[in-house]
Amino acid sequence: MVKLTKIYTRTGDAGETGLVDGSRLSKAHPRMEAIGDIDEANSAIGVALTHPMAEPVRAMLGRIQNELFDLGADVATPGEDFAPSEMTLRVLPEQVARLEREIDAMNERLEPLRSFILPGGDPAAAALHLARAITRRAERAAVAAHAATPLNPVALEYLNRLSDHLFVLCRLANLDQSGDVLWVPGATRGS
Known about the structure:
By secondary structure, this protein is mostly helical. It is built from 5 helices and 4 strands; from the N terminus they run ββαααβααβ. The strands form 2 sheets. It has a two-stranded antiparallel sheet. The chain has a two-stranded antiparallel sheet with strand order 3-4. Strand 1 (about 15-20) and strand 2 form a beta hairpin. Helix 1 (about 30-50) runs antiparallel to helix 4 (about 125-150) and helix 3 (about 95-105) runs parallel beside helix 5 (about 155-175). The longest helix is centred in the C-terminal third of the chain and has 26 residues, at about 125-150.
């Protein structure tokens, strides 16, 4: 269990931060960019949870928030051994598979897309769209970090699937309200 008694340590004042193994890394390193974007995606989900939504959706998002903390720890763990252990958190294929099952179950209630949709609609859906866009950025940052240093490939899969999950969840949130906000190509060209 984590126990923090002091919030500031001054160890990062020179622009470096500690990784899980105790090594130090520049806060500007691509790995740290990915960790920051993962944290921001988690925070955006927290904002989305301030809106009214069904309890099963809240439970899904709560699991995802916890998994994003695990994902941040995974990305902050150097090395090329991606097997989990008692001391090493790693995102697992089962977590990606669960996201896929949830996507499939949510998608059963939705009509097939016939247009791209615009971020918006119900306030909860709009907040989830923002979380989805931030998750896409976190995925791009993780891919860039992976090009510089090996990351758990399952972590990359998780981020990709999570953005899909949030997209379907946005559509589901709008289903019970005003429906998807559809993109109308070239709609304002004559204005």
